[in-house]
Each structure stands twice: as structure tokens, then as C-alpha cells.
Specification:
Order of helices and strands: HHHHHHHEHEEEHEEHEEEHHHHHHHHHH
Number of helices: 20
Largest sheet: 5 strands, antiparallel
Helix content: 55-70%
Radius of gyration: 28 Å
Shape: elongated
Structural class: alpha+beta
Strand order of the largest sheet: 3-2-4-1-5
């Protein structure tokens, strides 16, 4: 039986791996069970950890701290890497609004914490721990504990109150989202609606009747126009061709143009006349438009192309082809010369079969190579994220500097690398399944360790009158700000429900609730809005945990 003892009892590295894996497996299995149509998913790993800790299972504290920290880092970095390409564009289109709404969630919870401390007499360190648990924010808890140590006070009291309020902090956000959804959201509100997007392509046909552009080259016409467009094909005297930038337009030329819908009217004025044919239907056979030209989608898989601008490749002039559209992460982009290409981009190329074959060699089109993860970027990003999280930031009136920590630093760096990495020729592409694997693995490790650590004294604290008060206060801090700001965002500000749900999850630093939202709401809006508000809210939560103790103790 010594082998069983070494696996489950004796505190070794082997035993830590076995216990954490066992808790994760049981929790993930139970998380798939649906109760009244709702499953908690990976969240159940946390409760499985609490039960394991309650029944006496434990691992070496240093191993526990390592696994918990590494799991959290892996999760938030992979999340940042995934949403990075759409993060800043999302911020421009509505990120300020989302961050203001998220700020409302943060400030409401903070105000309630101070008020409850005054009304109930619960000590401020315990109240800060309740706030951290109610908002599922362990980095803020760590910051609060460090502040108490600097002030020469007991730093353990916030940890237990955080553990007691944490479970309902997780569930409270999900319940709040379900409540708002049942009460206010119609089925049509959950449908993915096309938003106004300058990058969304629109295909139109024009006839050249404007004397101002007769006998001018396409390059010259592009210079005098403020609107972006790509001429995919040109009909002249019954022949179809792919025009280069040097092609001179003549009166009566028919043009197939890729642009954005908002620019179609202006281009009608530029060229002279728009034809009535709808070229945006999905059932159009592009290869049947003419017999000589074919249309093929080619994937960028050569690392040398990563980060280069499309125009710098001069594919149109060298091979006589045209790139009409670029697909990236499910988004259709206009193939302008200034577009920076990334690994995994899918380019729609039009031209003769032999020319397209040559373009394949330039771009790669080796889809199998994309399945090999680029781990260098993952590890470099983690190092940079931890370095950023460790930088002390001083604020006037606060004696101790604050830090972004293990969660804030990696997600900020993940977003930055996901956005700007290709411009620095860093290969940041990972398949969706690989990214989901990293996130699920990291989150499972983090929750298993967190629950295992909190389970030792969890039940004895919960069933004390003081513990029940902590639970009630924490649940109020979780639920009330969520309901108020979700209703304001959805009913008054008219933000789509997917973005509202992601904003709520991000403002409460609740990845478990985000997992539930992603499973029940179509589209990527929840993940994008989560990442839009998460860095600011994480930073504020860490600061607020320290500010409350410094100013009110």
C-alpha cells in the first residue's frame, strides 16, 4: 500500500500532480451535468477542491502556490492572446462605453463594502476579503494581504472571508446574468447582428461614365479618392481581365469593385454609374463569371510573410492576380495595400490557375503547419507579462506602490502581443482549439488549488453566525452591482446582451461566468468585451483593495 500512500498522502511533487488532476477531473465531469438547463462547467472544479480540502486532502504549500499561480497566468495570457487582434478596434467602437459601465460595477461594489463595514461592524480587513471573494479577485486579495503586512497587522483574516464569499461570488454573477436574460432579453436579442464595420467588405459593379477619370490609371484614381476600393475585374469589349494599378480606364468599362457599403454611393459618383446586380449573395459562382479566371482561398502559412503589408508583396503586378478579400478570426477584411498580414489569414485570390499556383508558393497554403503551436511566443509572453505585473506603480497619497500582479500583467501583454506581434514579425497564431486547451487547463489548475486551500476551514466558518453574515454581505456585493449595471447597459444604453454579459464578467474578474456566457450566447462579443474591460477593472480592484485599507483603517 506504500504506492497509494505516495500517490495521495505523502506530500511530494508526484502527489501534488495526482491530487490536482483528480480534483480537476471530478469537477469537470460534474460540471457537465445540467440542472434546470444550466451547467456550471469548470466552476465545479472549485467546489470539488473545497470538498477535497474539507476531507483532509492537502499538498505541499509551495507546490500548491506554484500550480495555482501558473494556472492563473496560463489562463489570462491565453485569453489576452485570443482577443488581442480585436481588442483595440473594439475599444474604438464601444470600449469607452463598456469601460464606463464596468467602472460603475467596480465603484458600486466598493461603496457597498465601506457602507457594510460601517453598518454591520465587520472588521475592514474581513470586509476587504469579502469584497475580493464577491468579485472573485484573488490578485486583489494578495494585494490586500501585502498591505496588511506592511502595516504590521494580521494578513490571514481576509483570506478566510474571501474563501467564504467566493462560491456565491462565482454563482451570483451567473444568476444575475440569467435573471436579466429571463426578464428583459428576447430571443431576437441573442441573434448575432451585423455591426457597422469599416472593414466589412461590400461588392458592387460600376460603369465608367465620369469624364473626370477617363484615360486615368487606377493608381491615379485611387490617389484622388478618399475612399478605399479594390477593382477585382474589368470588362472591356467582352473580355474580362484583372487590372493592375497601371491599367488605364476607358469610358464604358465595367468594373467589379470590393469596398465598404458606406463608400458605395461615393464610388458611384466617382465612376459614374452603379449596376443593379447584387454581387453579395452567397450563392454566386465566382468561377463561372468567366472561363479563364478562377477564385481560390489561400492561407498564409509562411512565417516570412507574417507582419508584412499586402502591398509590399506586389502580387498583383508580379503574377497578374487580385486579392479581393482577407478572412481573419472569422472577420472579413478589405484587402488594401496597407493591410498587415498575419499567420492564418485566408486570402481570396482571383486569377489564372497557373498564376494562383505561383501565389500559393509565396503565401504558403500549408494548412497542416498551422496546427503546430508556436510555443516560443507563449513563453516569451508569459515572461513579459510577469515582468509587467511585478513593476511597482506609485500613486500620490498611497505609501506602498501597487502592482498589476499575476493576472493583470499577463493579460495586458497577451493583448499587446496578439495585436502588435505580427507587426514585429512574431508568430502569434494559435488554432482556436489550442487556445481553448490552454485556457481550460490553466483555469482548472487555478480553481482546483484555490478550492483545496480554502476547504480546510470552509464549512466550520460558513455555519457560524459570522460566516453566514459574510456570505450574505458578499452575495449582495456580487449581485446588486451586476443587476443595476446590466439593466442600465441593456435597457438604457442599448448595448447588445452578449457584450453586456462579457462586460459584467470582466468587471467582476469572473472567468467561470464567462465560460457559462460563451456556452449560452452565440458570437465572440462576450469574450471581446470581457477583455476590453478586464485590464482596467483588474488594475482598479488591486488598487482599491489597498486604498480601502490605507485610508479607512
Amino acid at each position: 500500500m506504500e504506492w497509494l500512500n505516495s500517490l495521495f498522502i505523502e506530500q511530494t511533487a508526484l502527489q501534488a500532480v495526482v491530487i490536482i488532476s483528480l480534483i480537476s477531473a471530478i469537477g469537470l465531469g460534474l460540471g457537465k451535468i445540467h440542472i434546470m438547463g444550466v451547467s456550471l462547467g469548470v466552476t465545479v472544479v472549485f467546489f470539488a477542491g473545497i470538498l477535497a480540502g474539507h476531507f483532509g486532502l492537502s499538498v505541499d504549500p509551495q507546490m500548491l502556490n506554484y500550480a495555482e499561480s501558473f494556472g492563473l497566468i496560463l489562463f489570462v495570457y491565453a485569453l489576452g492572446l485570443q482577443v488581442g487582434p480585436g481588442f483595440f478596434s473594439s475599444f474604438r467602437k464601444g470600449g469607452v462605453e463598456l469601460n464606463m459601465l464596468a467602472l460603475g460595477v467596480v465603484l458600486l461594489g466598493t461603496a457597498m463594502t465601506v457602507v457594510f463595514h460601517t453598518m454591520t461592524g465587520v472588521s475592514l480587513p474581513d470586509m476587504v476579503g469579502i469584497l475580493c471573494g464577491a468579485t472573485t479577485n484573488t490578485p486583489a486579495l494578495g494585494a490586500a494581504q501585502q498591505t496588511l503586512k506592511q502595516m504590521g497587522m494580521d494578513s490571514n483574516s481576509p483570506a478566510l472571508s474571501c474563501a467564504v464569499s467566493y462560491p456565491l461570488g462565482v454563482i451570483g454573477v451567473i444568476l444575475g446574468i440569467i435573471f436579466v436574460r429571463k426578464l428583459f432579453v428576447k430571443k431576437s436579442d441573442l441573434e448575432i447582428k451585423e455591426k457597422d464595420d469599416n472593414n466589412k467588405t461590400y461588392i458592387a459593379a460600376f460603369q465608367v461614365h465620369n469624364p473626370g477619370i477617363f484615360d486615368k490609371s487606377i493608381k491615379d484614381i485611387a490617389h484622388i479618392s478618399h475612399h478605399k476600393f479594390i477593382i477585382s475585374r474589368l470588362w472591356r469589349d467582352g473580355n474580362v481581365s484583372i487590372p493592375t494599378s497601371e491599367k488605364v480606364l476607358k469610358e464604358g468599362d465595367r468594373l467589379l469593385v470590393i469596398t465598404s457599403e458606406k463608400d458605395a454611393l461615393a464610388l458611384t459618383v466617382l465612376f459614374g454609374e452603379q449596376e443593379n446586380t447584387d454581387w453579395n449573395k452567397e450563392d454566386i459562382d465566382w468561377n463561372a463569371i468567366d472561363s479563364q479566371l478562377v477564385s481560390q482561398r489561400i492561407v498564409v502559412t509562411r512565417s516570412e510573410i507574417n507582419g508584412k503589408k499586402l502591398g509590399s508583396l506586389r502580387l498583383r503586378n508580379h503574377y497578374g492576380i487580385n486579392i479581393s478579400r482577407v478572412y481573419r478570426s472569422g472577420v472579413q477584411l478589405l484587402a488594401t495595400p496597407e493591410l498587415t498580414l498575419q499567420m492564418g489569414d485566408r486570402l481570396t485570390v482571383v486569377g489564372e490557375a497557373a498564376a494562383i499556383h505561383n501565389v500559393e508558393k509565396v503565401l504558403g497554403n500549408a494548412v497542416k503547419s498551422l496546427k503546430e503551436p508556436n510555443l516560443i511566443t507563449i513563453f516569451i509572453g508569459i515572461i513579459l507579462g510577469l515582468a509587467l505585473g511585478a513593476i511597482p506603480i506609485s500613486f500620490p497619497g498611497i505609501s506602498a506602490p501597487v502592482k498589476l500582479g499575476l493576472a493583470g500583467g499577463p493579460i495586458v501583454v497577451g493583448i499587446l502581443i496578439g495585436t502588435f506581434g505580427p507587426r514585429l514579425h512574431m508568430v502569434t497564431y494559435t488554432t482556436r482549439s489550442a487556445n481553448l486547451m490552454l485556457r481550460a487547463l490553466g483555469l482548472s489548475m487555478y480553481l482546483a488549488c484555490l478550492g483545496l486551500d480554502a476547504g480546510k476551514h470552509f464549512f466550520e466558518t460558513v455555519f457560524r453566525p459570522e460566516g453566514l453574515l459574510w456570505i450574505g454581505l458578499g452575495f449582495a456585493i456580487t449581485l446588486i452591482p451586476v443587476l443595476i449595471m446590466a439593466i442600465i447597459a441593456f435597457k438604457i444604453m442599448k448595448v447588445d446582451f452578449g457584450s453586456v454579459s462579457g462586460m459584467i464578467c470582466g468587471s467582476m474578474a469572473n472567468p467561470m461566468a464567462l465560460t457559462y456566457v460563451n456556452d449560452t450566447i452565440p458570437g465572440d462579443n462576450p469574450s471581446v468585451s470581457y477583455a476590453t474591460v478586464y485590464p482596467l477593472c483588474m488594475f482598479l480592484r488591486v488598487i482599491i483593495a489597498q486604498v480601502i485599507l490605507m485610508f479607512f483603517l
